[in-house]
């Protein structure tokens, strides 16, 4: 009997896609153990009814392990290396015990874990499973294009693009990422490579190891669709034996649910499937209801981005100057330390023209007819959610994979514009006008966004590539359990 243990990195950009995959696998009839750190689980439980609902599913259980960090530790994603190190050293035994209890007895009488789906960024998930001889698949929660760019770091070092030369021309094309030579500029390389002073830089080393690890999994699972990233996927397939593109997971979950009326779950809507570290402020949906179709600019920089007060004010003036109503997510921890208070003029004018919330039900917001564009930090989940909704983007990437994603949005998929490295008020205003106004550029973007939305939705429908790949993934997982336990009573 197949029993899958899923173990994501404890962050907003990772746990929700893992939960979606876990729910899909559960609906396919597999036993699911979902591992969260205690700290992340407490936060998700406090703000995401989904987690409660999932815990109520048959053959679906949560297990938590300590992350080894102090109670008061802010666990900022930007310090992910420290979080990873703590997990690797202090959570190891807890994870090992979940994977294979020392006394050999599962407390719920479940069969042993037959497959781990580990986060591609979390080497612990992979290492311990290998030690225990449990097959591992890896899920990368970022785009294939960024995973390929990360994989290409050694080549970029060879071509002299990394570390960035002093006074580097940021607009120069780089030659080290195969297939992207004609459009990937130095400024589009993953943000984490910008500050590396040498190849010994710990972040660079981490990125290179994570890339090498990809080949160690039985398969690589990706929240993307073939129609979006086919050329990059063919490069990736040179390093990973088997790749399952099963995205967009949110759409697949909706479709898979509606085709399986026998399953004991409520209907999948964007609302019921969201999972958040912050409490969603749903009042903004009412505010959206009061605005005409495609009139509102939705602004959110995800769960990690931190901006200076100066940048915040520039965005603010740009948005007001554009004359468009806006819905803006400003997390309590989004403004740089010491600068936390929102400017008074921002608060006042927001009441007249905008709606400010600390956290929004983003998938529902993007699906709302009054949203006309998304000013985003280009995190992969946000990018994919915007593509599904057919909403054109204005990209202002902060770090990590976002620099690559935004280049693809602007230059390859042409479903948005990229204002990378700029945030002056006139730039913001100009970009909003360009995308929202009735001119040629706006029209083209809306058309491409609608086409791309159609394509990815089809991919996740029965017979589509992601839907079919998911079925293959389930078969693959089942085959691992029959190989491992051949002849045993659990078969
Ligand atoms: N999100 C949300 N409400 C918000 C802002 C973000 O639900 O107000 C969700 C968003 O839908 C996405 C995730 O948080 O699924 C952010 O992930 P992403 O990969 O875009 O960026 P990260 O937070 O990892 O930088």
Fold and architecture overview:
By secondary structure, this protein is α/β, with parallel strands linked by helices. The chain has two domains: 3-141 and 247-275 and 462-489, Rossmann fold (3-Layer(aba) Sandwich), CATH 3.40.50; 283-456, Glycogen Phosphorylase B (Rossmann fold), CATH 3.40.50.2000. 44% of the residues lie in helices and 12% in strands. The chain is built from 20 helices and 13 strands. It has helices spanning 15-27, 38-47, 49-55, 80-90, 92-99, 123-131, 144-151, 153-158, 202-213, 226-236, 249-259, 283-289, 309-322, 344-353, 362-367, 380-389, 402-412, 425-436, 440-459, 465-484, and strands at residues 3-7, 31-37, 60-65, 115-119, 136-140, 220-222, 243-245, 296-300, 326-329, 354-357, 371-376, 393-395, 416-418. It has a seven-stranded parallel beta sheet, sandwiched between helices. Strands 10-9-8-11-12-13 form a six-stranded parallel beta sheet, with helices on both faces. Helix 14 links the parallel strand 9 (326-329) and strand 10. Helix 7 (144-151) crosses helix 9 (202-213) and helix 16 (380-389) packs across helix 19 (440-459). The longest helix has 20 residues, at 440-459. The N and C termini lie close together (5 Å). The relative contact order is 0.12. Residues 259-271 and 485-491 have low confidence and may be disordered. The site of uridine-5'-diphosphate (UDP) has 19 residues, from helix 15 and helix 16.
């Amino acid at each position: 009997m197949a029993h899958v243990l899923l173990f994501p990195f404890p962050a907003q950009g990772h746990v929700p896609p893992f939960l979606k995959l876990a729910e899909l696998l559960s609906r396919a009839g597999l036993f699911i153990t979902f591992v969260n750190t205690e700290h992340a689980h407490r936060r998700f439980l406090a703000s995401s009814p989904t987690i409660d609902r999932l815990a109520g599913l048959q053959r679906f259980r949560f297990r938590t392990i300590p992350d080894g960090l102090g109670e008061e530790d802010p666990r900022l994603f930007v310090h992910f290396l420290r979080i990873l190190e703590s997990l690797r050293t202090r959570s190891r035994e807890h994870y090992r015990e979940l994977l294979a209890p020392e006394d050999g007895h599962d407390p719920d009488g479940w069969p042993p874990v037959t497959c781990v789906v580990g986060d591609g960024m979390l080497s612990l998930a992979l290492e311990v499973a290998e030690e225990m001889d449990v097959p591992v698949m890896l899920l990368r929660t970022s785009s294939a294009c960024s995973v390929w760019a990360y994989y290409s770091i050694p080549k970029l070092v060879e071509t002299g693009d990394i570390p960035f030369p002093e006074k580097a021309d940021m607009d120069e094309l780089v030659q080290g990422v195969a297939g992207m030579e004609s459009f990937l500029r130095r400024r589009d390389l993953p943000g984490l490579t910008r500050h590396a002073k040498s190849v010994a830089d710990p972040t660079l080393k981490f990125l290179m190891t994570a890339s090498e690890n990809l080949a160690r999994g039985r398969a690589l699972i990706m929240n993307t669709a073939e129609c979006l990233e086919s050329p990059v996927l063919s490069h990736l397939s040179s390093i990973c034996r088997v790749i399952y593109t099963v995205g967009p997971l949110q759409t697949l979950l909706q479709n898979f649910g509606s085709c399986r009326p026998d399953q004991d779950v409520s209907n999948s809507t964007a609302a019921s499937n969201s999972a958040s570290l912050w409490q969603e402020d749903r009042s903004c949906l009412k505010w959206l209801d009061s605005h005409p179709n495609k009139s509102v600019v939705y602004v959110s920089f995800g769960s990690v981005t931190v901006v200076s007060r100066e940048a915040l004010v520039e965005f603010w003036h740009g948005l007001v100057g554009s004359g468009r109503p806006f819905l803006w997510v400003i997390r309590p921890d989004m403004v740089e330390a010491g600068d936390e208070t929102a400017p008074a003029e921002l608060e006042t004018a927001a009441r007249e023209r905008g709606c400010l919330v600390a956290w929004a039900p983003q998938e529902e917001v993007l699906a709302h007819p009054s949203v006309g564009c998304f000013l985003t930090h280009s995190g992969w989940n946000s990018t994919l959610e915007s593509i599904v909704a057919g909403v054109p983007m204005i990209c202002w990437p902060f770090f990590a994979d976002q620099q690559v994603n935004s280049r693809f949005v602007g230059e390859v998929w042409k479903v948005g514009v990229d204002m990378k490295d700029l945030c002056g008020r006139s730039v913001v205003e100009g970009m909003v006008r360009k995308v929202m106004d009735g001119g040629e550029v706006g029209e083209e973007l809306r058309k491409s966004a609608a086409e791309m939305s159609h394509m990815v939705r089809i991919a996740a429908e029965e017979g589509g590539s992601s839907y079919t790949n998911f079925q293959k993934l389930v078969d693959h997982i089942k085959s691992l359990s029959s190989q491992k336990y051949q002849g045993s009573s659990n078969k």
